[in-house]
């Protein structure tokens, strides 16, 4: 069993920055991928950023150049550095980890960007 604990969300003005973290614990041997998804009420959850086990990263077009995903393997932690935040980035952000073909989700952390 794997548990994911997210932190770092909050309220920030447009143009500001936040760094989200997601710490994984439990039965972790190897991680295929770690990613961040976001969801607005009434909308489908969408991928924001992902980092593979090999270290390659991918981003949805709307966050490219502003968000950076990274990881600390020793701490089993994935981060999402969010810069130049826009109101449209407002969402609940969920950490997602895949290990041995099983998907685990964090509890979600709220990000609100005001104008």
How are the elements arranged and paired?
Elements: E1 2-7, E2 10-13, E3 18-26, E4 33-39, E5 46-52, E6 57-59, E7 67-72, E8 77-82, E9 91-99, E10 102-105, E11 109-114
- The overall pLDDT, averaged over residues, is 94
Report the radius of gyration as a whole number of Å.
Answer: 13 Å
Succession of helices and strands: EEEEEEEEEEE
Assembly level: single chain
- Note the total helix count: 0
Fraction in beta strands: over 45%
Please give the share of residues in helix.
Answer: under 10%
Biggest beta sheet summary = 7 strands, mixed
Number of strands: 11
Low-confidence stretches: none
Gross morphology: globular
Which structural category fits the helices and strands? mainly beta
Q: N- to C-terminal separation?
A: 41 Å
In brief:
The protein has 115 residues and is mostly beta strands. The protein has strands at 2-7, 10-13, 18-26, 33-39, 46-52, 57-59, 67-72, 77-82, 91-99, 102-105, 109-114.
Structure, described:
This protein has no helices and 11 strands. The strands form 2 sheets. Strands 2, 4, 5, 6, 9, 10 and 11 form a 7-stranded mixed beta sheet that branches. A 4-stranded antiparallel beta sheet has the order 1-3-8-7, with no helix packed on it. By secondary structure, the chain is mainly beta. It is globular and about 45 Å long.
Key attributes of the depicted protein:
single chain, 115 residues, mainly beta, four-stranded antiparallel β-sheet, 11 strands, globular
């Amino acid at each position: 069993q794997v548990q994911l604990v997210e932190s770092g969300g909050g309220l920030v003005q447009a143009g500001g920055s936040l760094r989200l973290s997601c710490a994984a614990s439990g039965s972790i041997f190897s991680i295929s991928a770690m990613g961040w998804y976001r969801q607005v009420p009434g909308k489908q959850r969408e991928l924001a950023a992902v980092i593979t086990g090999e270290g390659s990263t991918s981003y949805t077009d709307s966050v490219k150049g502003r968000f950076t995903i990274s990881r600390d393997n020793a701490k089993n932690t994935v981060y999402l550095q969010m810069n130049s935040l826009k109101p449209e980035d407002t969402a609940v952000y969920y950490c997602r980890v895949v290990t041995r073909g099983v998907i685990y989700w964090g509890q979600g952390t709220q990000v609100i960007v005001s104008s």
